[in-house]
User: Fold these one by one.
Assistant:
Number 1:
Amino acid sequence: MKSHILLSHGGGGKLTRDLIRDRFLPAFSNPYLEKLGDSALLLAGREKITFTTDSYVIHPPFFPGGNIGELAIYGTVNDLSVSFSEPLFISTGFIIEEGFPLNKLDEILISMKEACIRAGVQVVTGDTKVVEKGKGDGIFINTSGIGRVEEEWLPQTPPTAGDKILLNGTVADHGIAVMTTRENLPVESEIVSDTAPLNLLILPLLKQFPGKIRFMRDATRGGLATVINEIVDHTLLGSELWEESIPVREDTQALCDLLGLDPLYIANEGKAVFIVEKESGEEILEFMKTLPFGENSSVIGELTPRHPGRVILKTPTGGGRILDIPIGDQLPRIC
Amino acid sequence: MKSHILLSHGGGGKLTRDLIRDRFLPAFSNPYLEKLGDSALLLAGREKITFTTDSYVIHPPFFPGGNIGELAIYGTVNDLSVSFSEPLFISTGFIIEEGFPLNKLDEILISMKEACIRAGVQVVTGDTKVVEKGKGDGIFINTSGIGRVEEEWLPQTPPTAGDKILLNGTVADHGIAVMTTRENLPVESEIVSDTAPLNLLILPLLKQFPGKIRFMRDATRGGLATVINEIVDHTLLGSELWEESIPVREDTQALCDLLGLDPLYIANEGKAVFIVEKESGEEILEFMKTLPFGENSSVIGELTPRHPGRVILKTPTGGGRILDIPIGDQLPRIC
């Protein structure tokens, strides 16, 4: 029996799931929360809105391709987007450690400002707390967000066998970019985080193919493999992924091999999984490729009635291996 | 020139105000944020909603009369309430330090659950992050919240000279209750935090006196004196408070004297200031006294055209002293 919080409780894997199922859900049990979506879908009077929250504790706060500030904006924008909504309003809650340099704070704020402009959202409310030196770690940022939903964007039917699984580009870049910085690895690397506002990709898709996308989730903590597991977990559906169709940068793969990491379990910050109805799969894929952050999209697998609750990775040689949910995360504090 | 974050930047006083005005506002400049309200008043399609966020870093997390969990629920409920709205939905973002005892987490979750039931709100979305031992301080909780607004509840006119200032009970109990615990003071004290869901007081007021309340703010960080200063700061209005009409518990006052603290600057978690039109003042006060958390309400002063931007405390002997905005807070990490 575990009696204390472990780092893995925050890793997005099995321990996180258990913590939520055994402790948080019983405390706050209600139909909104029980869906365990990236956002809650709420009724505010006559309007459907989405509501989400995420705290960012990434270490280090500055990494190749970004910093904690834009990550906090895009992360919440993405959670709202994969919940079939248009991100509108963001709140920011800063917890800053005494002694944090103000010029670093300014740098973070500037990139948050630019991120807001790029994503078309507004920070409308905020809070700042300061904790004593040694009681925090530089800077933590919580962002919550509200989006608006048009009824016709929502899926007409839930995911079903035969549905295609689409992905909008290479996996593992964010995690590996952070990892190389954190560990001061003696390697020359051009890998940068893929942090990106996915509403620029998803909103046009929702408008072009209303009701045709059956599920979306961004592949952050725990990576692609964990997200696909969450989709089929406790359902009568299984999933098959085709290894050769999952794009991984060559240098990212090389670093994963060097470090003994599986890119399918590494966090992304600009990649989402799309479950779409079989018939529309190709058409949606072609349109995705014309959109921002969609150029490298591909069909990476499908849902199947076989091996329910399981994710199978099919190798080019015809073999297969089970992709299980990890206990924790290979890289803590990745977002 | 300060180049690093100080504890006082989080204290709710001048340094917090400067941080917001000089750094946060320029970054996120927009009409919603510039109002600097306790919540943002937003338009979600055809509905008016409020949106607010607060991170709770209170030390210690368990204190006489409550813990960080219910504080995080009530604090956000109160921010939505003083923004003329009915609190509905709450998000929770936990940042937990590795090694935090799970039974303490359970205790916090149970009191959050009870707080939600009492306040009539639902936790609909959440997030949990874990940081390494020594990189946090037990547990930090962010809550954001959404409320709904009925047009008629909103003030018909802004605060004006002659308006009465109402307060719903004794000040400084929260800060002193936390302080006695934190410092292990060798005193027997029965002072407990006043943490409370003020929607139970405010909603009935809004329904009974729609449009008659001109401003509300809960007197948290920086206490009563700071809140009144925020109301008149940079306006053509001044404020006079009548010292003998501001309720302070005898034992709270005694501890303040002992510690050299001014109760008017000490944080509360269940007290709000109400600016109401002169003519309705007495009627509103009488109704407040019949409501939960309103029994000890009183008229504590009024807005005046004299000494604009200043808060003057009138003593029973006819003297007066200026209540200025403090630089930081007398007690850091009080919420």
Number 2:
Amino acid sequence: MKRRSFLKKAAVGLAAGTVAAPAIAQSQPTVSWRLASSFPKSLDTIFGAAEVISKRVAAATNGKFTIKVFAGGEIVPPFSVVDAVQNATVECCHTAPYYFFGKDPTFAFACAIPFGMNARQQNAWMYHGGGADLMREFLKEYNIINFPAGNTGAQMGGWFRKEIKTVNDLKGLKMRIGGTAGLPLAKLGVVPQQIPGGDIYPALEKGTIDAAEWVGPYDDMKLNLHNTARYYYYPGWHEPGTTNEFSFNKKAYDALPVDLRRTLDHAAAAVSVYGLTDYHAKNAIALERLKTEFKAKVEIIALPGPVLRDLKKIAGDVIREESEKTPMARKIHASYTKFQALVGPWDRVAEGAYHQLVEG
Amino acid sequence: MKRRSFLKKAAVGLAAGTVAAPAIAQSQPTVSWRLASSFPKSLDTIFGAAEVISKRVAAATNGKFTIKVFAGGEIVPPFSVVDAVQNATVECCHTAPYYFFGKDPTFAFACAIPFGMNARQQNAWMYHGGGADLMREFLKEYNIINFPAGNTGAQMGGWFRKEIKTVNDLKGLKMRIGGTAGLPLAKLGVVPQQIPGGDIYPALEKGTIDAAEWVGPYDDMKLNLHNTARYYYYPGWHEPGTTNEFSFNKKAYDALPVDLRRTLDHAAAAVSVYGLTDYHAKNAIALERLKTEFKAKVEIIALPGPVLRDLKKIAGDVIREESEKTPMARKIHASYTKFQALVGPWDRVAEGAYHQLVEG
């Protein structure tokens, strides 16, 4: 928009109390960043979040700040993006931080914990329960500052080629599963595997693995999982609200002028709501398709109560043990579980009670 | 930050692939807006959302765009803020749009519908289910463009001075209740009243009303409601995820340079996640206080199943009737109910099933 045209159009604003101060000549360098995603381009939801932030940051800064987005493997392998940010190979990444729990279990608390917090609770902990501050204290040693950016919401429990009737049916299963959820499954005899999204279908199709979880109906169908396994389980006990994250190289972030930093922060928060609700709408449509179009091929069933009870008991113990590995993991585990215990009773009378009222 | 210092600090970015283009001299006028809130200053949650957006927009634009926030009644009465934006008395307002359902029932669909969608579902409809486009089509005649900005999450069912055992106990009750939820209650003999937040306590204390709902434990305690009524009911059947809104005068918004418009959009979306989770954390703490500190004074109890069943049946009928009043309300009611029916089965296996697993 030309300046003259803007001032003319702004007249209504002036009449209504706007004060147009004299124009200030400003000079600011442009900034170009590269973002390494852990996700494949085929997933418009989870990969798309990085593109959304890139477009929105460019638009909000008049093109002064551009972020070029690369899919998993394009410039950095999917599970090496944290190293790439740490080493300043790229300025930022978009990932699910639990991929890195092998480096340090602390990573998982910013993302998803089996039988842990859902999207709303997790964001409440991050923004208003001290979670973000603690995670940033931890991530300093990786030269990283992180922002929650996108959330899958509650996931599905995964695709299985054979039915799971008791915990015995889990024994010996090779299963693709993200994050710390493989730990309790391993106690029940599962062989957990962390495989990037784009590689799950061939592994399942070839029989290299027997079961796999990714996210929910929309993404899973994009990955073609419904064409290679019959039993689709719920609920997503292992990932109740997986929080993806933008992680920025701390020096690159701190070197930005403050207006660009704030623009990034808001865009990350905005992506949290766009992303969660994008998944919500798309998963609803995809579930409907599974129930109709793929009715003969796919069974959508609940995991048996006793299996879930065993998993819950084991998961609590295993996550506690895992958190004893480092002082930071212990500290963050304590904060996380305390916050979950605090918000649980509130959700029982609020969101949970409402879910039961309309769906029960 | 001085330019020299920025360039120095940006060196790490450069090494990591940043390209600093030559500085471009820019001139852009500063913009000063006024925002009229419907809410009292005492509520840091709901009133605070407008202050958050104001601060964040200023920070993201280097102070070029300032929004001065006025509490309900300071320059515009709480329930006149839409008129004030329509008439360009102020450039924007922050409100709960269902306050205006008397003008046109369509307003309510952007906010809260009894037995309607929760925060996640409502945002999914707004952002990804056509809801925002439809609401903006409707709001054109009010010279308004709207953005969801903050959400209370599932509310509590309200404070009552006497116990509600059957629908007969509702007869003749004068109750403060927001939005269209008064309509089904009226069918059961309640006299619904729309009273601004700041005026609820004196009305309940003086006995002008017998019952009142506002939001949830945190706000309600700030309003002192726990010191004037004993029975605190759940669930919030009437407001499952009340969406507050920033509404901008369309001409003032369109006259903004595109970068400032995008900055506003993101800040509104960011406030949606900050606001919802702020409520979540604070309500959890406040509920705990009610259960301990105020144990002798306050009973937190579920509305009886038969009362909820009657209300649900009546609410469905009444909202449908109400929506027949204007073509736009009919159109938006159809879109809203269709989306709610679509996402319901997904929530049954995802968020709802997970709530049941961990709280059930």
